[in-house]
Amino acid sequence: MAAGREAALADPARRLRDAAEPLAMHATGSAHVRAALEELGLDRFAGYVWGRAAVLGEPSPAVVVAAFGVFEPNRLGAVYSSAKSACPRDRLLAVREAAVAVSLRRVLGESDVSAVVSPLLGAVSALPPGGRPLFAGLLGSPVPAQPLGRLWRACELLREHRGDSHLKALVARGLHPVEANLLTELWHGLPAPAYTLTRGWSAEQAANALERLSSVGLVRDGRLTADGARLRTELELETNRGERRLVEALGADLERVVAALDGWSTRCIAAGAFTPDPGKRAAG
After folding, report:
1. Beta bridge pairs of residue 219
2. H helices then E strands: how many in the chain?
3. Residue closest to 18 by CA, chosen among 263, 248, 213, 233
4. Using the 8-state DSSP alphabet, how is residue 88 labeled?
5. pLDDT, tens digit, 9 for 90 and up, residues 1-12
6. Phi-psi region of 279 (alpha: psi -120 to 50; beta: other; left: phi over 0)
7. CB-based contacts of 92, cutoff 8 Å, min separation 6
């Protein structure tokens, strides 16, 4: 089973996602961006929620809960509603985009990203949006004019496309969202339920979910059983298959794109704009 896990993580689609993650999450990880959003009345989590949901327009809390998929519904809905009341959508999007461009310029300097952005943005923008609400909303949003902004948007699109693929796999298996979070952090070797709690679930909800997972033989003594590891590996493989069109579209550019993104992401981590914890990077 360990071999299956390693194969899933070594898949080109997974390596592409991991290379892009710190760049895609720059609007949350960058202290400069967070400070700009705090001036709008949005703390880190509120900025993340409203910033991500805004690509859908101004949907109801229930739609945001459905699109995000793995967050505690009441907590997520309340944060979204409060954030939307605190800051108009157009203002949020404009400030967020401008702050990301400034922050990435500080981290990456005058790096020439065009040779990577062009094939990546072209490949991800050509993917069909059906069944992928967050990806579709982002795809329909104006692309930043600045090269570093375009890099960020390409990575955001990649992230949302994969996120929608992963959520489809979870729903198909009938997993409760809190259970899905726990399986993910245990599969990545994180100390459960720390990661799950960041998604708004309470310690009691997490404990109850662990008991349910134990009762069906997926978890034992705080670790995944062979069946639990197999299930989570299968979910990863299904998610990777959902990204096959993107990998094929990049073709011969894939390895060059992955290497460049990973190098820039490493600089984001060194600058403190993303967590240095590899487990949290993988689980995000």
Report:
1. 224
2. 18, 2
3. 263
4. -
5. 577 888 999 999
6. alpha
7. 37, 40, 42, 50, 51, 54
Extents of the domains making up the chain: 2-278
Tell which wins on pLDDT, 284 or 235: 235
Tell me what pLDDT residue 1 has.
59
> CB atoms < 10 A from the CB of 142, how many?
8
Q: pTM of the predicted model, to two decimals?
A: 0.96
DSSP characters for 60-77? -HHHHHHHH-SS-HHHHH
> Residue range 214-233: average pLDDT?
97
**275-284 burial, b for 16+ CB within 10 Å, e for fewer?**
eeeebbbbbb
Cβ–Cβ < 8 Å for 194, 279: no
- Neighbouring-strand partners of residue 224: 219
The pLDDT, as a whole number, for residue 222 is 92
- Percent share of the chain, pLDDT over 70: 100
Structure tokens at 107: 């981290």
